[in-house]
Write a structure and sequence with these properties.
By secondary structure, the protein is of the alpha+beta class. The protein has one domain: tt1808, chain A, CATH 3.90.1570. It contains three helices and ten strands, in the order αββαβββαβββββ. The strands form three sheets. Strands 3-4-5-6-7-8 form a six-stranded mixed sheet, sandwiched between helices. The protein has a two-stranded antiparallel sheet with strand order 1-2. Strands 9-10 form a two-stranded antiparallel sheet. It is globular, with a radius of gyration of 19 Å.
């Protein structure tokens, strides 16, 4: 006969995953690239479905960013960044420092990352809160949120601990579709009318 002891006031605790656990799940075949899952603060998070406005913005950004960045940095699209032991998001875009192996040996880290970009329609609130806090805590210097609902760019800079264990950015600028913004690589600007016609 099997007996179990239930301790009073014991509440169930979620299982948290590390980046190593997450990679092991992929290696064992429990997860694959088509699952669209990110590791956020130890939790496996299903990424939101992408609408046509989201995909159109991605296409336009790819077309415009590659020539602007050139060979001064590396543009990555929907690829992982290892932020900490329990976080490996896949932002829509990241501009990272060039590396000889093109990150074959390991994903970029915050020290490699110059700018992270998310494109948001249905995920707008999540990207403004959870993702913003995650990138700020990792001290990624620039976070751009392309708001396809309002056709604006929210540009965040100067990551900081706002209150104990609450991270954010000290600067937030809103750019409308008629604006241009300088990339943190070189002196080229991104004209938003090319992204939000």
């Amino acid at each position: 006969m099997i007996t179990t002891t239930i301790k009073p006031n014991q509440t169930p605790q979620p299982v948290r995953f590390t980046v190593q656990d997450y990679h092991r799940l992929v290696a064992l075949g429990f997860l694959d690239e088509d699952d669209h899952i990110e590791l956020i603060r130890g939790e496996l998070v299903q990424m939101a479905a992408k609408g046509t406005a989201h995909e159109t913005c991605i296409t336009r950004l790819l077309r415009v960013l590659l020539p602007i960045i050139g060979d001064r940095a590396t543009l990555r699209c929907q690829s992982p960044i290892t932020l900490m032991f329990d976080g490996e998001p896949e932002p829509d875009f990241a501009i990272v420092k060039n590396r000889d192996d093109d990150y074959e040996l390991a994903h970029p880290t915050p020290a490699d990352t110059l700018l992270v970009m998310e494109v948001a329609d249905s995920s707008l609130e999540y990207d403004r809160t959870v993702k913003l806090s995650l990138y700020a805590e990792a001290a990624i210097p620039h976070y751009w949120l392309f708001n396809v609902v309002d056709r604006t760019l929210e540009a965040y800079s100067e990551p900081a601990e706002i209150t104990p264990e609450q991270f954010g950015y000290l600067n937030r600028c809103i750019f409308t579709s008629g604006s241009a913004i300088a990339l943190p690589v070189g002196e080229q600007t991104l004209t938003l009318s090319q992204i939000f016609p």
